[in-house]
């Protein structure tokens, strides 16, 4: 990533990856940066170069939001906090594993994670079709906290549909899904699975 892009990249670094909303001025700045990067995509046919897409990625920003009653129902206001979001892409198997980390206050700072597995197949030079396969929450105490609202939790993070890969280089990937959401991820050296 060149210095100019690195400078702009700091615009994206926002609290909780945008999940709990972003002020409209900041959201506009991020959208402007996304469009700038997309116009300079060094990999215009990403599905023909899937080796650039494979590996572990960490979510930096998304337009998916958990606001109002959804946030309250999931306990994300008071005692459950979101940790890092990782995506592991296995190109050879056509699999993507999303790992969402949670911390629970009051339960000896219990850490847990939601893992969502999906398969993908190439649909065009820049698009993949994604099919949800399975999900798990560990440990059981965290599943017990989410059990009543598990369908709501999955509906927020469900990867079913398609994803247009609009930018990818060695360090960053941007995608847009069929619901109009934008995702910005940075390559991670961590191997969360």
UniProtKB/TrEMBL annotation:
InterPro entries: PAP, PAP/fibrillin_dom. GO terms for cellular component: plastid. Residues 11-185 form the Plastid lipid-associated protein/fibrillin conserved domain. Keywords: Plastid, Transit peptide. Coiled coil: none annotated. It is found in: Plastid. Pfam families: PAP_fibrillin. Belongs to the PAP/fibrillin family. This is Plastid lipid-associated protein/fibrillin conserved domain-containing protein. It comes from Populus deltoides (Eastern poplar).
């Amino acid at each position: 990533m060149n210095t100019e892009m690195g400078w702009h990249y700091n615009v994206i670094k926002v609290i909780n990856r945008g999940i709990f909303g972003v002020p409209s001025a900041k959201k506009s700045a991020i959208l402007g940066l996304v469009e700038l990067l997309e116009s300079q995509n060094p990999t215009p046919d990403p599905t023909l170069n899937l080796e650039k897409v494979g590996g572990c990625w960490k979510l930096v920003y998304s337009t998916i939001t958990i606001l109002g009653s959804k946030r309250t129902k999931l306990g994300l206001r008071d005692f459950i906090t979101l940790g890092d979001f990782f995506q592991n892409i296995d190109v050879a198997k056509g699999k993507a594993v999303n790992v969402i980390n949670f911390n629970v206050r009051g339960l000896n700072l219990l850490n847990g994670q939601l893992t969502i597995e999906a398969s993908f197949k190439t649909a065009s030079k820049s698009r993949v079709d994604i099919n949800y396969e399975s999900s798990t929450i560990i440990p059981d105490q965290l599943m017990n906290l989410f059990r009543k609202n598990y369908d709501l939790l999955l509906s927020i993070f469900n990867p079913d549909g398609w994803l247009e890969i609009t930018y990818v280089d060695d360090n960053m990937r941007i995608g847009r899904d069929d619901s109009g959401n934008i995702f910005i991820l940075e390559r991670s050296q961590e191997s969360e699975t």
